[in-house]
Amino acid sequence: TIQIANMGGWDTDCNVGNVGAIMGVAVGLDGIPLKWRTPMNDILVAASVIGTRNLLDIPACADLFCDLGRQLAGENPVPRKPRFHFQYADSTHGFQFDGKNGKIIALKNDGGGLRAIVRKLNKKGMVRLFAPTSLRPNDLSANYYGASFSPKIYPGQTVRAAVTLPAGAPPTLRAGLFVWDDNRAEYHQDIGTPLIPGETVEMAYTIPALHNALLAKVGLVLKNTGQPWSGSFTLNWLDWGGMAHFSTDFGLERAEFGAISQWTYLRGYWRLENGTYHGSGAGINESYSGDIDWTDYRLDVQLTPLLGDRHFALVRVQGARRSYAVGFAPDGRLIIYKNQGGYRQVAETPFVWQHGQSYRLGVTAAGNRLQVVVDDVPLLSWADEDVPYLHGQIGLSNFSGCHTRFEKVKVSYGE
Predict the structure, then answer these.
(1) What mean pLDDT comes out for the span 65-76?
(2) At residue 356, does pLDDT exceed 60?
(3) Under DSSP, is residue 200 helix (H, G, I), strand (E, B) or coil?
(4) Model confidence, pTM
(5) DSSP H or E segment with residue 220
(6) Pairing mode, strands 297-307 and 402-412
C-alpha cells in the first residue's frame, strides 16, 4: 500500500505517511515487516519549539499520545513508565552501542528489556549501550522542516537503571551509568556497580552541576576485570529525573537551525555575537531551552538591553502560547506577563533600568508563585490564582523593535 502511494509521484510523503499510519493500525505490528521497522530503530524526529520533544522514540511518543488521550477523556493518569522501558514488542527506544576491546554484535528486545549480545569482552575492555539525547545538524541526513533540539537530560539530574546478568556469567563484570558532553567531547560517569550473575541490579548516578555542557548521550558502560567473556546482559529500564543544575555563557555553543545549539526559537533574529547570545526582531521574539516537564526552579539571566523597551526572561514555557515573561518594560518598570494565548500584564513594580547596562535577572518559580530579584535584590512577588502553569521550559524574549544581549544563563533549584 505504501509503495503504491509513493509511486504516485510528485509530493507524496504526506500521503504515504497517512496511508502507512492507517494501514499500520489495520494490520498491527505483526503486519509490518521488520525490513521497515529495524532501520528506523524507533527514532522519531519532529520540528517544533519544544526542543526536548523534537528527538523522540516511537514508544515514548505512543506513551505521550495515550496520556494526552486520557487527559482529554477525563480519565485518571496511569503511573508513569520509565523513559526507556522496552515493554512494547521489538522496541529499542533508539539505543545504539560502541566498545573497545570487545563489542556488542546485536540488540534484541527479549520481553523483559533490551538484551545486548557481547562478543569477546577482554580484560579491561568495555562496551557502551546508549541512547541519543540531543542531535547536531550533521546527524540528520536531511532537515527540510528545520528541526532543532534541546537536550533531553541535563546536569544535576539523576539517572537510574536496572540491569540483569544471566546466571553462569562471570562475577568480573561491572556496569556504570554515563552521559556524554558533546561540547567538550568528554564522558561523565559513575564508578560502576558489580553485576551479580542471575540477578537484577539497580543503579543510580547523579550528574554533577556543569558549565557550558551539552549532554547528547545517556547510557550504560559495561567493563570486564577478568578473563575474556562472550555472553549477554539485559538493560531492563533506564530513566532520569530531578531538577537540572547548570549554567552557560554560550561560549561553546554553535549557530544551528536559525538559533544556536540547545535552543529553539519562535520568531526573531537569534545569533551569536562576540560569544554572547543576541535576539532582535519585528515581533515578539522568543528562544527556548530546557525541558517542558521541569516544575520548580530558579532561572538567572545576565542580560543587557541594547535597543527597545521590553526585555524578558521566560519561565514555565509550555509552547508559543503558554508561559510567563519577567523583565524590563517602558517607563522604568519591572513587569510580569502571563502568556495565555497572548501576553497580558499581571504584576509590576518601579525599577529604573538603562540601555547598555548589564543586569542579573533572577526568577524563582515555586508552585503558583513567581519571585523576582535583580542583582540579588528582591523586587517583585506574584501568585497566579487563575489556572497557573506549574511546569515548563525556560526562555529568552524581547518585543518588537528590541535588541537584547544575553550573556549568561543559570538554572538551579533550592536556592
Answers:
(1) 95
(2) yes
(3) strand
(4) 0.95
(5) strand 215-224
(6) antiparallel
Backbone angles phi, psi at 195, to 5 degrees: -90, 145
75 class by beta-carbon count within 10 Å (0-12 exposed, 13-18 middle, 19+ buried): exposed
Q: Is the pLDDT of residue 49 over 90?
A: yes
Angle at 366 between CA 134 and CA 347, to 5 degrees: 110
**Taking the C-alpha atoms of 375, 206, 289 and 407 in order, what is their torsion angle to the nearest 10 degrees?**
40
In sequence order, what DSSP letters do the residues of 314-340 get, joined into one string?
Answer: EEEE-STTEEEEEEEETTTEEEEEEEE
Please report, as a single letter, which amino acid is at residue 402. Answer: C
Cell readout for 231 is 555472553
* Distance from C-alpha of 56 to C-alpha of 25, rounded to nearest angstrom: 20
Taking Cα atoms as reference points, which of 288, 285, 326 lies closest to residue 308? 285
Element (H, E) at 170: none
SS3 63: helix
Element housing 6 (H / E): helix 2-6
Match 539505543 to its residue by C-alpha cell.
Answer: 95
Choose among 115, 116, 121: nearest CA to 100: 121
Pairing of strands 246-248, 210-211: parallel
